[in-house]
Amino acid sequence: MSKRVGIEVSLAIAEAVRLADVDVVSAYPITPQTHIVEELSHYVANGELDAAFIPVESEHSAMSAALGSSAVGARTYTATSAQGLALMNEILFIAPAMRLPVVMTIANRALSGPISIWNDHSDIMSIRDVGWIQIFVENGQEAFDLSIAAFKIAEDKRVLLPIGVNMDGFTLSHVIEPIEFMDQAEVDKFLPRFKPQMILDPKKPVTMGAVGVPEMYMEAKKQFEQALIDSKSVVLEVLADWARHTGRKYELVEKNGKPGAKTLFVTMGSLGETTMTAVEKLVASGKDAGQVRLRLWRPFPEEEFKAAVKGAKRLIVIDRALSPGGVCAPVATEIKSLFYGQKGAPEIVNIVAGIGGRDVSVKDFEDMFDMAVSGSVKENYKIWGVKSNA
User: For residues 260 and 312, is the Cβ–Cβ distance under 8 A?
Assistant: First the structure.
């Protein structure tokens, strides 16, 4: 029987991982994801979760241990943030190449320097091309739901790829929200036990992670890139299955605001909910405003995104990270490339907001809208909130 609980979002994610009945938790603490693995350690210690809890000496080791446990057929989970994700970088590339379905929560946080423990998306954008499925959540209910769904997506035999579930650090990880929990029986109906296709077993030796000589390296890369592209159909299937089980429906791309609006905000993550409020106010004042929210970042949902923005004249793309020296920030670069050379493509107005945890208010989004519509954003991208340029 489902129950509604007011709880810190990090603890709700730990509960989702417990309900997924993981076999191994590979853990190293780093703000702001620490509460997740701390809670999981309690579950293991008091017998509520029958799993191996591996407290490692660094995030590099956390991912290494996760890959080892996944390679022997264990349902495996870990979590990290910011510099921890950066320290994992060397190992992150290995997981998709070896087709290991590790699930990881990333409590998004600004990368140094200067040192910051606050939220933006610079950590996840630093690893956007490592070959992982990448999902963004907006609120605690999504974080709980999609943490469970992530195991079913990653472990599907048509996928067998790692998946990162991104939630905004502090902005979401440390807030208390009302969340509808499922009980173990409900989760068990949705999520079958992991059935690995190939495992490391001394009784049946196999080679995993072998050297890729030039004669086969390209073929290996193409193989798991195609698997990542093809995983979108499985993501859709799993989200539809989740809706049947819970009544909560999630799309890869969701739209709100005035129907047929010509100016649309494009957002990812919890800042999208602030944007929703701004869009509601803009529409109420008679302005032609809407919003498109990206939930799936990799593989990029090209068809769904184009359908959502069809007919729009202008996209105000909100980035939460810089691409220093680049023409645009990461999300805007992706969207510009999507429409390159196409007749009637919308104007892309790129605004970088909220980096290093800087507050972005409803009024800020209203001002962004007015500037974009008036054509006064002349730069390739505008960093919103810089005191000398606000």
Answer: no
pLDDT score recorded for residue 388: 56
Which residues, including other chains, have CB under 8 Å from residue 122's CB and lie 6 or more apart? 82, 110, 111, 320, 321, 322, 355
Cβ-based burial of 344 (10 A; exposed 0-12, middle 13-18, buried ≥19):
exposed
Beta strand ranges found along 140-252 (DSSP E): 163-168, 176-181
Residue 177 to residues 29, 104, 243, 272, Cα–Cα distance (Å) = 23, 21, 21, 16
Asked if residues 163 and 228 have their Cβ atoms less than 8 Å apart, the reply is no
Average pLDDT of the residues of the chain: 96
Beta strands in the chain (DSSP E): 3-8, 24-27, 52-55, 76-80, 103-108, 133-136, 163-168, 176-181, 253-257, 263-267, 289-294, 296-298, 314-319, 347-352, 381-383
In whole angstroms, what is the distance from residue 93 CA to residue 129 CA?
Answer: 9
Please give the single-letter amino acid code of residue 229. Answer: I
CATH numbers and ranges of domains, the chain: 3-246 (3.40.50.970), 253-383 (3.40.50.920)
SS3 category, 268: coil
Distance CA 297, CA 253 (A): 10
pLDDT number for residue 390: 46
Q: Tally Cβ neighbours within 10 Å of residue 8.
A: 19
The whole-model pTM stands at 0.97
